[in-house]
Amino acid sequence: TCGICVEKCPFDAIEIINLPTELQEDPVHRYGDNAFALYGLPVPESGGVTGILGPNGIGKTTAVHALAGEMVPNLGNYDEEATWEAVLERYRGTELQNYIERVREEQVSIARKPQYVDQIPKQFDGVTSDLLAATDERGKLDEYVERLGIAPVVDQPLDTLSGGELQRVALAATMARDRDFYFLDEITPYLDIGQRVTAARLIRELAEEEDKAVLVVEHDLAILDLLADTLHIAYGEPGAYGVVTDPKSVRNGINEYLKGYLSNENMRIRPDEIQFHQHAPRETSKSAPLVDYPDLSKSYGDGEFSLDVEGGTIYQSEVLGIVGPNGIGKSTLAQMFAGSLEPDEGELDFRLDIAYKPQYIEIDQPMRVDAFLSSITEDFGTSYWKTEVANPLQLGRIMERNLDDLSGGERQRVAIAACLSEDADLYVLDEPSAHLDVEQRVQATTAIRRYAENHDATVMVIDHDIYMIDLLADRLMVFDGEPSVHGHAGTPQEMRAGMNDFLSDLDITFRRDERTQRPRINKPGSQLDSKQKRSGEYYYSS
Ligand code: ADP
Ligand code: ADP
Predict the structure, then answer these.
(1) Residue 45 to residues 48, 50, 199, 211, Cα–Cα distance (Å)
(2) Of the candidates 2, 8, 4, 15, which has an alpha carbon nearest to the alpha carbon of residue 397?
(3) Cβ of residue 59 lying under 6 Å from some atom of ligand 1
C-alpha cells in the first residue's frame, strides 16, 4: 500500500506507483495524529451551483465547516493554533483567495439543508408553518411553498409528514433564507422525478437570479448534471482521508467519475467503468411466467383514492422497474399481490410470498446488524450468503455495529440485505437508492441483478433515479394519474415503450452523452428536445 490507508487499498487491483500529487502536499485539515485528513477544498462561486460527487465520510462536512468560517482549517498542523492568515497564504493566487478573504472578514453567512431530513421532527416540534415562518428572509417563501407543492401540509405537525414532504419543506426553509452561501446535502431522497427536476430548477434560479453561491452534494447523476455548473470529485478512504479535486465542468466530471479515471489528476478511482446502453435492450426470450393477473381496481374509504390496474404478466427471474410519482398506488398494488388487500374488482387466484423493503426504513433497535440478519436467514454467515448478499452490499465492516447507530446509507444496505435474505416469490424494493452514494448504488444494482439471476427470483424495484432504473430493470411498469386521488398502473412493458410512456407524461427527454452514452436531461424547448418529442423517442435515441 501507499502507507495512507488504514485497511486495505481502496483502489483494489490498481497499482499505486506514486502517491497522487494531492497527497504529497499538506492537507487542508487534519483532526489529529493518525486522524482523518482532508485534501483540497471546493470553490463556492456566486451566481453558480458547485457540485461535489463522491462517497460519504470523505470530508464534505469538514470542508463546509471551513468554508462557512465555523472552523479554521489547520493545514495539517493539528497541534498548533490555526489562523486564517496562514490559510490565506496557502490559497493566495488561487480561485479560493477572494472567498477566503471574505470568510476571514466574517462576511460569509450560510444556510444549510441537512442530509437526513427524517431527523427534522426530532429536532423541531410543531407544525410545518411554524418551521417555515422564521425562514422567509427574501420574501420568496410563498413561491417555494407553491412550486414545491407543500401547501397541503403547512398546517400539519412535522412528525406526520412523509420523507418526501419533509425533503421539500427542508429545501424551502433553506432556500428562503437570505445568505451568501447555501449548502444542500442531498436534495433527492424520497422525491419523485418530477419533484427532483423542480427542486433542481429552483436551486439554479437561486444561484443565477440572486447571485448566490450554492454547494450541493448529490448522488442522482441525472439531477446533478442538470443542477451543477462545476463539479468537484471527492475520493479517498472514508474515515481516513478525503481528496477534493479542482473544479471540472459538470459534464467532464461525471464522465470521468463513471470511467473511474480522473485525467487531470492522473488518478484511477475504480477498476471498472460504469456503462450505459444507448439502445433499448432487445426483447429477451422470456422465462416462465410467475403470475398472470387480470385488470384490477381498488379504492380506499369513500373513494378518496382509487387505483386502476391494467392486467399483465410478471416473469420469473426478471427485474421489473416501477416508476411513477409518490402516492400513486404502488404499495397498494404490492399489498394486493401479497393477498393482504382484496381488490374491489378483479380476482387474484394467487397469493405471493412477498419480501418487502419499505421506502422509510425503521429498524432502529438496539440490536447488532449480525444478530438482526441471522434472525432472518439460516444462510447467514455461509460463504454462499456472503458472496451473494453481504459482500456486494459491503456489510463486512458494519456487522458488529448496532442498528440504531447506522448512517442512512448503512441502514439502507442492511435493509436491502434483509429483504434479499428472505425466502419469497417476489422481492419488492421501494427506493433502494435513497442515501446510497453513486458507488453503492452501482454495487446494490449488481447485487440485486445477480440475486435475481442466480435464484430465479423476481424483483420489483421502485426507484426515481433514472440511472439506477436504467442499470437495473429488464422491463418497466409505469404508474400515472393524480397522486393521492387516482392512480393508473400500466401493464409491464419493454424498456423503450415504458420509458417513452413515463417520460412523455413528465415532458422530459434525454439525450446521450457522446463519450459515455449516459443519459442527460435535455433543456426544455431545445432543438433535440423538440425533435425527440416529435418522433416520440424520449429516452433511447435510436
Ligand atoms: P462527510 O460529510 O463527507 O460524511 P465528515 O467531514 O463529516 O464527512 O467526516 C470525515 C471524517 O472526519 C469522518 O471519518 C469523521 O469521523 C472524521 N471527523 C469528523 N469530525 C471529527 C472531529 N471533530 N475529530 C476527529 N475526527 C472527525
Ligand atoms: P405509493 O406506494 O405509490 O406511494 P400508496 O399505494 O402507498 O402509494 O398510496 C396511494 C394513496 O392511497 C395515498 O394517497 C395514500 O395516502 C392512500 N392510502 C394508502 N393506504 C391507505 C389506507 N389503508 N386507507 C386510506 N388511504 C390509503
Answers:
(1) 6, 7, 20, 9
(2) 8
(3) yes
Number of Cβ within a 10 Å radius of residue 130: 14
The rounded Å distance from CA 333 to ligand 1 centre is 42
Cα distance between residue 464 and residue 437, in whole Å: 14
Q: Structure pTM?
A: 0.91
Specify the ligand 2 atom closest to the Cα of 479. 3
Classify the phi-psi angles of 392: left when phi > 0, otherwise alpha if psi is within -120 to 50, otherwise beta.
Answer: alpha
Please report where in the chains the cell 489547520 appears, as a residue. 74
Beta carbons of 59 and 224 less than 8 angstroms apart: no
3-class SS shares of the chain: helix, strand, coil, % to 5: 35, 20, 45
Strands 241-244 and 230-237, bridge-based pairing = antiparallel
Q: DSSP 3-state assignment of 88?
A: helix
User: What is the per-residue pLDDT across 382-435, written as a single tens digit (0 to 9) for each?
Assistant: 999 999 999 989 999 899 999 998 988 999 999 999 999 999 999 999 999 999
- Strands 261-262 and 510-512 turn out to be unpaired
The helix (run of H) or strand (run of E) holding residue 458 is: strand 458-462
Distance of CA 480 to the CA centre of its chain: 22
Best mutation site among 332, 335, 428 for ligand 2 pocket (most ligand atoms within 8 Å of CB): 332
For 437-441, the CB contacts below 8 A with 24+ separation are 437/54, 437/55, 437/56, 437/219, 437/409, 438/53, 438/219, 438/221, 438/257, 439/55, 439/270, 440/55, 440/394, 440/409, 440/413, 441/219, 441/465, 441/467, 441/468
Instruction: Please name the residue that has the C-alpha cell 393524480.
Output: 482
- Ligand 1 centre distance from Cα of residue 239 (Å): 7
Question: Whose CA is closest to 539, among 495, 507, 506, 509?
Answer: 509
Give the span between the Cα atoms of 255 and 221, in whole angstroms: 10
Nearest CA to ligand 1 atom 17: 36
How far does the centroid of ligand 2 lie from the alpha carbon of residue 482, in Å?
12
Q: How far is the CA of 36 from the centre of ligand 1 (A)?
A: 7
Which cell is 259 given? 470511467
Residue to mutate (ligand 1; options 61, 67, 183, 438; most atoms within 8 A of CB): 61
Query: So what's the pLDDT on residue 359?
Result: 86
> What was the pLDDT predicted at 25?
79
Helix extents (H) in 422-512 = 438-455, 466-472, 495-506
ipTM of the predicted structure? 0.91
Rg (CA), the chain: 24
* Cβ proximity of 388 and 450 under 8 Å: yes
Q: Write the DSSP symbol of residue 532.
A: H
What lies within 8 Å, CB to CB, of 303 at 6+ separation is: none
Q: Is the dihedral of CA 27, 29, 35, 39 positive or negative?
A: negative
